[in-house]
Amino acid sequence: MDELDIETVADPDLRDPVLVEGLPGVGHVGKLAVEHLLEEKESELVRRVYSEHFPPQVTVSDDGTTELACAEIHAVELDDRDLLILTGDNQASDNAGHYRLTDAFLDVAESFGVETVYALGGVPTGELMDEYAVVGAATDTEFVEELVDVGVEFREDEPAGGIVGTSGLLLGLGERRGLRATCLMGETSGYLVDPKSARAVLEVLEDVLGFEVEYDSLEERADDMEDVANKIQEMENQQSGMPTDENLRYIG
Amino acid sequence: MDELDIETVADPDLRDPVLVEGLPGVGHVGKLAVEHLLEEKESELVRRVYSEHFPPQVTVSDDGTTELACAEIHAVELDDRDLLILTGDNQASDNAGHYRLTDAFLDVAESFGVETVYALGGVPTGELMDEYAVVGAATDTEFVEELVDVGVEFREDEPAGGIVGTSGLLLGLGERRGLRATCLMGETSGYLVDPKSARAVLEVLEDVLGFEVEYDSLEERADDMEDVANKIQEMENQQSGMPTDENLRYIG
Amino acid sequence: MDELDIETVADPDLRDPVLVEGLPGVGHVGKLAVEHLLEEKESELVRRVYSEHFPPQVTVSDDGTTELACAEIHAVELDDRDLLILTGDNQASDNAGHYRLTDAFLDVAESFGVETVYALGGVPTGELMDEYAVVGAATDTEFVEELVDVGVEFREDEPAGGIVGTSGLLLGLGERRGLRATCLMGETSGYLVDPKSARAVLEVLEDVLGFEVEYDSLEERADDMEDVANKIQEMENQQSGMPTDENLRYIG
Amino acid sequence: MDELDIETVADPDLRDPVLVEGLPGVGHVGKLAVEHLLEEKESELVRRVYSEHFPPQVTVSDDGTTELACAEIHAVELDDRDLLILTGDNQASDNAGHYRLTDAFLDVAESFGVETVYALGGVPTGELMDEYAVVGAATDTEFVEELVDVGVEFREDEPAGGIVGTSGLLLGLGERRGLRATCLMGETSGYLVDPKSARAVLEVLEDVLGFEVEYDSLEERADDMEDVANKIQEMENQQSGMPTDENLRYIG
């Protein structure tokens, strides 16, 4: 295998497509968001990107068959314009790999006519939350203004430390190619996989791109996660000898 | 030396050979299994693969002479079909090295006409065991069915995290070349070198490939390991003040 | 993007320029020093150096726009001779990257006619200080003597462990190209960003290169840091139950 | 600078030279041994090897001038045959770097006609010692026998884990080029720089190569180290409340 190996699975014509990225990261917000889009909308796998910059690893499916670590790019046809969705199980394993893989992703996107990139992710707040703001960063001030209009927050010094990995480079390398790019980051505790944060990010995307999506299955997933979070809370309380809601019923 | 340097030691004609890999890994199951095959069957060293992706290291033999870190490929002629056995003391030291070495191993295998690959390894259970199931993963569903027929277990979400290193890539890169490949993983505690797990894996291989092998020397090694495990257990018990089998005799 | 990508932003003619480097390091002394020069003097950005040896990262500005990790080279025109100032937010992420980036910086410098290099940095003393000596090292004994004349101290075995990173290689690789180079290191505790140490280094540079600079804004920054240092001191004293200056007033 | 840059400083004709390597390692035994040879015998620097596989670093001399990290090869003319001595302050920083630098060292050695290589080092025993055996390993059994004749010990399973770094690869890569190579390892505690172990290794080299060297300066260095070791011992004893030899005199 070469350092990078892009497998062409399909080559549909897309109408004015934008690239939407959701790779693993804080709270798995970006990955959850694009996975939900792929579940809810009809999609077609168009490219697989293999690379020796991914971990030396296969995943095992439920039927016992294996798949080599790769990133996948899917086409989703919407009413007004189409999406190219980039997802996968891995970020690059090394510094140069981040640059080379992101360049490969942008090459594919540009070959489909992409001019705008949405990198989706999470921004850690360190505490459990009820309201999920979406924090943004973008390659130019016009794009910033457009996003402010749909409720995205731009905050000084946030995210502290900048944006790292593929999401960051989609903006950094995208801008150098003359693309417009933004990173939309849902607030999330940072401790758990966070479907509610993923919904907040997707709702921004609906507004910006003019499409609609159902959230039932994502809400179920959010409820499951809430159960997990509550159980953890309970166990911690029991260890510290404090009564939980559960305990209180028996006292009463 | 080049990045990869394949030394041709012999070039026998092999009948319908399969590649069997056993490099260091969980419980050294794969390595023990192929070492046992090489002890029990007549074999011929056919290739040494040197690489700057291996550690910068020589091993010292009992006669004081040294050998540069390498992987070895041996040919074993059986009644029905032949084996190419890949073993060695090291995995690659870096991410890209895993990909490049596995590609080199597959190049050698294909040059001998190999169409099927068996990667042998262990899957950690975290507890000492009496029965040793063999868990599998394979490149296609037909191969999965063949292996189910000889008792290999295919389990959802196992191994969690997929299969990493050379074993994983033999499947991932093998499939991309059009080879059939499986990883056969003997259950093992993960704490100790495990000859019994190696035997379980070899017994599957006997069934699939139609050959037979003696296990006396592997059983001796298993008994040695059991003595070690018992001593560790005893020491732990003495430290915690609990009587061991040994102690009980003296009490009686 | 290539491994190294040097963007030409401007190409002014410079009179007898010297290269002055201030990248992140001990006490951020070098970076503070060159940032202060860029604030106080008129300057022009002449080059941006992008590289996959920098972290895969964008920083986010106060207006919400992003910038890809890079090093910047600015031209500053002084009365007698001009400066090329190298700064940025990152050192290289890997060993070879340090060599390749430093070579790129020296290529740019030589294209402007630079023959002398001043690497600015800090040397950690492990204790808070009142007086800030500047310790030096240089590529040749003549240069050492020149610097001794303006008060730079050259001490046996200091800095212990030599000079690492871009500063070190500007001397090591610079000398191999026939350039004169020195590293001027302000003494600093090593615990805090240290504007006073940066001033000490700049004052040496003023003497050597014959220019003058105001220090008001750097002194403000030093006062801010002193407040921070005092608060840390106070908190530590309160924890250990010892009275601080603040407490003593209330006792009286 | 290229990945590897070999600077030719001198090109003397040497009579039947052998390569003697002493880079930093366990107890600095190898480096001490070759440094002592260079102090006691007339020598000429013949090559400097620079590489981006060395740390990005300059060392600072007592006169304040700097030197880029490199390895040095010196020629020493003895009565019967000459030596090429490889020394320096660093091993390679990365896996591939060890292979590439060792190949470069062997290229230089072969260009001078070297057919035999002596890698000098230490083998850690974990305890302070009175007698310093020299343990060996070599590329062929004849060489092993020659070294047994001069008192080198060859022990099963020692050094456990083989020989790593440049010393190991001089044997591993040397053998692949058809060179004879040995690693002579002085026993050493592994805790301290060990001039006595270095002497033990040099005495073997004297026997094998037929030359003589004075040990006064090395003995002084050993005495200094012994003082250091005694002080550490004393401090430990005082902390544990046990009397030292020193204390006992005062008690009496």
TrEMBL record, chains A, B, C, D:
Pfam families: PAC2. The keyword Signal does not apply. It comes from the Archaea. One of its GO terms (cellular component) is proteasome complex. SUPFAM superfamilies: Cgl1923-like (SSF159659). InterPro entries: MJ1210-like, Proteasome_assmbl_chaperone_2, PSMG2_sf. Residues 208-238 form a coiled coil. Keywords: Coiled coil, Proteasome. This is Proteasome assembly chaperone family protein. It comes from Halorussus aquaticus.
